[in-house]
Every structure is written in C-alpha cells, then in structure tokens.
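Supplementary Methods, section 5.1.

A reviewer requested that the exact input to the structure prediction be made available. We therefore reproduce it here, unchanged from the version used in the analyses.
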Amino acid sequence: MDPDSGTAAEDLGGAAPTARAPVVVLVGPTASGKSALGVALARRLGGEIISADSMQLYRGMDIGTAKITAQESRSVPHHLLDVLDVTQEASVASYQQMARSACADIRSRGRTPLIVGGSGLYVRAAVDEIDFPPTDPDLRAALHRRLDSEGAHVLRQELAAADPTSAETVRDDRRLVRALEVVTLTGRSFASYMPRRIHHEPMTPVVQIGLRVPRELLHRRIAARVREMVDEGLEAEVADLDRAGLRSGRTASAAIGYQQMLAVRDGAVTRQEAVEDIIVATRRLARRQETWFRADPRISWIDVDEDTTTEQITEAALLHIRTDPPNRDGRR
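The structure derived from this sequence is encoded token-by-token as follows.
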C-alpha cells in the first residue's frame, strides 16, 4: 500500500466521512504549496478536491494558472477545473452553486470534500452565507459598450454619484461595470452585498487551514514559477487561446500572465518585459490574498519555510483537522 494512501477512518479519529465530518478548506497565497498539500491530504482522508481558483475554471488556461497536471494529482479527483470557455465570464454566484453541488456529491459518496484555492471570495462563497445580487446580461452588455466608447472615468463618475462607498473600493473595470449593474438593478450599494462578517452556513462544519510563507521565500517561488511557465510554453498557450477568442473574454483575457503575453503578441512589450511584469503582478496578487485570508479568524495557520517538507505540512494539517473545533461562526 502507498504510505500516504491511508483511510479516512485512520485520520478522522476512527470515523469514516459522514455528513457531519468537516469540510476541509486549504487557502494561502499563490505558490505557497496548496495544490500539493491538497493532494496529500485527499489521499490520507479519502477525499476529493474542489478547486477555488477563479482562473482555473477556464479550459485551456493550464500553464499560466499552474493548473494541476494528471501526474501531480496522483489519481485524486479534482472538481471545477475546465468548466468554462475563455469567451465566457466567470461568476462567483455560479461558482457557489457548482461548489456546493460538488461538495454534496462528494459527501453523498462517503468521501471528504477539500476546497483548495487562493480566490478568497470564491472560498467564502462556497462555505458562507453570502447573498449575491441579481444580474442582467443585456444591462451588463450595454455598460461594457459604454465602457469601451466613453471610457472608465465616465462610469466611475456615475458610480461615485450613485454609490460612493463602492466607488472608493472598486479598482478594475470589470468590477466597475458590475457595481453599476447592481446599483441600477437593486438600488442597493454594491458594497452592501460583500461579506462583512463570518456567517454560519449549512455546509458546516468546516476546518480551514492556511499556509503562511515568508515574503522573501514566496517571492523567490513566484519568480521561479513564472519563469518555469514561460519555459513550458506559456506564450504558445496564449497564442492558441487568442485564436480561440481569448480577447473577447473580459475575465480570462485579464488574467495575470495572459494579458502580458497578449501584449507580447501585439508587439507592445518584449518577452522579458512581460516576464518581469507577470512576476510583479503575481507578487501583488499574493499580498492581496494574504490580506484577505488574514482577516478570517477561523483559519489555522501553518508556517512553511524553505526546509519544510510536504510530509511535515501534511502532518501539521492533519493535526488541525483532528483537533480544531469545526467553524460555526467567527470565533475559534
């Protein structure tokens, strides 16, 4: 028997997975080692993984999102990978439904769901009560046309007048359009729909584990990963997706790595400039992820340094799963 393919009965204190056994959530910044830990834990717990990475939803976006390979998955089933074309727009509300359906399916087969990823709102959508506002495709399309023809500054002025709270926090054009869509449809502030506290959710109990990596080490890992992506063919992957309509997909085309390589195809930057830009953008992403997850008091943190092995991290995570009280509110 494979030494890390033990049963759930061994690692959940003698009980096979049931509807009352905790859902396991693994979070942390990009390049912190979540994917490898998820596979190791799934093999120990008799589990299956639900991805919580908004860009890994897209078919063909493999290298640039560090999507797990068949070899790396070691036969552990993964859910919510490759479910959208690059021309489609990812939706956290749609993800919420898919993640909860996958979780229920996994538990119905007596296995343990592990939600693994760095997209903070997607994780929260899967395990918390979040009320998502309605959407109107025609209105959104009209707002996108105005964005293209009139410019973001005009729409920002409108949002500031109608919803000043959201206008202070919305940074990118996609969320700008969404905020205007929401305030137009509902009369409520876009910010009012965002989670402000930890809620009890019917999927609970949940045990949440985070990986914490020293900043310098994380930066080295990010730089190494980006250069490896380029060596593995990121530029060719983007070229294939460009021919498949990547530029018409507002969400997918804005993904880190893909927008930079599109600029290389356009001759706007050199490949080396794109690589450096990807590294910097990924570091910024990692900082945002760290800030988001640090704000959640339910997460138990595991410190990872250069010498920490996957086996050591796995044992530390299993200890939390066995001993941490499952989260049912914002307190630990």
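The radius of gyration is 20 Å. These observations are discussed further in the main text.
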